[in-house]
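Entry:
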Amino acid sequence: MDVPDLKRIAKHYNKATINDVVLSLLSTCLLEYMHNHGDKTTKSVNVLMAFSFRELPQSYSEHKFENDVSGLQFTLPLHTKFADAVSAVNKETS
């Protein structure tokens, strides 16, 4: 999806962020996928995402390829409705 579309969706859901929208899409899509493949019991999934500790470079010459990342682990509740997912994710990240 394009970032302007994600921003428009986030704005529609009050104080949601682009991250809230992406995680909400992941939540609803994973649940639908699981239901379509016979898993009707899973209510959440554990997620591991890369998190960068690097400062944003001010210029191209300041950009470095370093391994300053760590894993960010969290549990993502799965929702059938996007609006419910945005509300839940927004509460968790606020």
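The chain has one domain: 3-54+68-93.
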